[in-house]
Amino acid sequence: VQLQASGGGLVQPGGSLRLSCVGFGILISRYNVGWYRQGPGKQRELVAINKILGEANYADSVKGRFTISRDNRENTVDLQLNSLQSADTGVYYCYVGLRSVAHWGQGTLVTVSS
């Protein structure tokens, strides 16, 4: 199983990015999918999760700014990041899992700075 994430980069405050994660060797339609992040000196935290039946949940800090989506035919999970703030800086990891199963992407760095 491999999850390949892309789309990170340097963006100014107020800007937007779109992260994408594609799964190899796994059918994401059978799992919850999500994005976590780890900021400088912080623990990894949940950003957004999209459950098997489509329910989406977000961290309070990103509600209204980030949108998670999945495409089961393309085996991808995306995260649209809008109105970015410096506090959003970190390494973003895609996640695919259910119960005791957990798979992680390699991480993609998002830096929000002027």
Describe the structure.
It is a single chain. With 114 residues, this protein is an all-beta fold. The chain is built from no helices and eleven strands. The strands form two sheets. Strands 2, 4, 5, 6, 9, 10 and 11 form a seven-stranded mixed sheet that branches. A four-stranded antiparallel sheet has the order 1-3-8-7, with no helix packed on it. Strand 7 and strand 8 (76-81) form a beta hairpin. It starts with a strand and ends with a strand. The model has no long low-confidence stretch (mean pLDDT 97).
Number of strands: 11
Low-confidence stretches at least 5 residues in length (pLDDT < 50)? none
Main beta-sheet annotation: 7 strands, mixed
Task: Give me the strand/helix succession.
Answer: EEEEEEEEEEE
**What global shape is seen?**
globular
Task: Figure out the total of helices.
Answer: 0
* Nearest-integer average pLDDT: 97
Radius of gyration: 13 Å
Helicity level: under 10%
N- and C-termini, Cα separation: 37 Å
Strand content: over 45%
Q: What class do helices, strands and sheet pairing give? A: mainly beta
Q: Which quaternary structure do these chains form? A: single chain
Entry keywords:
114 residues; mainly beta; seven-stranded mixed β-sheet; 11 strands; 54% strand
Q: What is the strand and helix layout of this fold?
A:
Layout: E1 2-6, E2 9-11, E3 17-24, E4 32-38, E5 45-50, E6 56-58, E7 66-71, E8 76-81, E9 90-98, E10 101-104, E11 108-112
Parallel strand pairs: 2-11
Antiparallel strand pairs: 1-3, 3-8, 4-5, 4-9, 5-6, 7-8, 9-10, 9-11
Give a short summary of the structure.
The protein is an all-beta fold. It contains no helices and 11 strands.
